[in-house]
């Protein structure tokens, strides 16, 4: 089977971690296909006006095209119009190259409907190739900042057209499917979860002595509620809590200042963005990962921590109940309540050795490893194409 992916998000030189979970999905399913080609088109303001750069990378039967383009000489609405036009044209240029080299693809798979889905709809019209959509974006949550409901009528109408014309809609969690159906468009959604690379994320079963060792991994934007984590850690410390937290991700200056203001500079340490092998090693040194989000579509770092055998301390929001079982692979704290989170931290400090690291890791790999999820995606492709042949 020959599949082409159109990725609205994908790691690139302007953002090395953007859509890295989509790249991992690609690595998961590629071994089950004859050929998988990923196209990601990225606007790069550092390029000269109207410039284009195309980078091709092959890894076995997985080929990725990362295409960069510069802005036009115009500004305002005209620039936005020309940018979208260029975005579509570059996708179609690479798609034509794929057809010449590998033949007509059997299926197109869009990751994040806007805006790569616009191209998939065009390809369906031109070549009669079906496409499916996997949605990862939190923009369908009304509490998200920003969200699709504030994006304007054009974006809304385009997104709805993309989803309506898809052969199948996939989401990474039931909660995201629920948000789409309740708030945006009634669709029959299937859930295919994110994946974890078990060759990198695995347990060492070493129990750490001394202070509680926490790790937090995120971009520390609004959804991650880093302010509440800092507040909770300050409360925990004031109650005699002994801890250290390693933070991975680009930290806004405001967050660093809040750590200083809370007198937690000797407890919280920032490391910036790192590649997955280094992150996995850091998780293995921790007692638990903390993710206290306001909202999420999934939470990849949860399954990465669990694959290392580490329990997680998470906010009590519905999506995390799809991943975490209380007392088994993690603990829940009432959402957006720093005092409640401080209570859970104290409880964890007293019983951190009671979690079964071997069991946590084994159950995580059984659900979210590359082969498991890769087979799920391949089975969906077969189903879509079989249905198309019957009809």
Residue ranges: pLDDT <50 for 5 or more in a row? none
**How many separate domains make up the residues?**
2
Structural class: alpha/beta
- Helix content estimate: 40-55%
Q: Outline, from the CA principal axes?
A: globular
Structure write-up:
This protein has 391 residues and is of the alpha/beta class. The protein folds into two domains: 2-195 and 369-390, Rossmann fold; 212-368, Rossmann fold (3-Layer(aba) Sandwich), CATH 3.40.50. The chain has helices at 20-29, 76-102, 113-127, 153-164, 174-183, 226-238, 253-261, 276-284, 300-307, 338-351, 357-368, 370-390; strands spanning 2-7, 35-43, 52-59, 62-69, 107-111, 131-135, 168-171, 189-191, 212-217, 243-248, 268-270, 288-291, 312-315, 330-333. The strands form two sheets. It has an eight-stranded mixed sheet with strand order 3-4-2-1-5-6-7-8, with helices on both faces. Helix 3 crosses helix 4 (153-164) and helix 6 (226-238) packs across helix 10. The two termini are 20 Å apart.
Q: Can you give me a brief rundown of this structure?
A:
The chain contains twelve helices and 14 strands. With 391 residues, it is of the alpha/beta class.
Could you outline the blueprint of secondary structure elements for this entry?
Layout lengths: L1 E6 L12 H10 L5 E9 L8 E8 L2 E8 L6 H27 L4 E5 L1 H15 L3 E5 L17 H12 L3 E4 L2 H10 L5 E3 L20 E6 L8 H13 L4 E6 L4 H9 L6 E3 L5 H9 L3 E4 L8 H8 L4 E4 L14 E4 L4 H14 L5 H12 L1 H21 L1
Parallel strand pairs: 1-2, 1-5, 2-4, 5-6, 6-7, 7-8, 9-10, 9-12, 10-11, 12-13, 13-14
Antiparallel strand pairs: 3-4
Helix pairs in contact: 1-12, 3-4, 6-10, 11-12
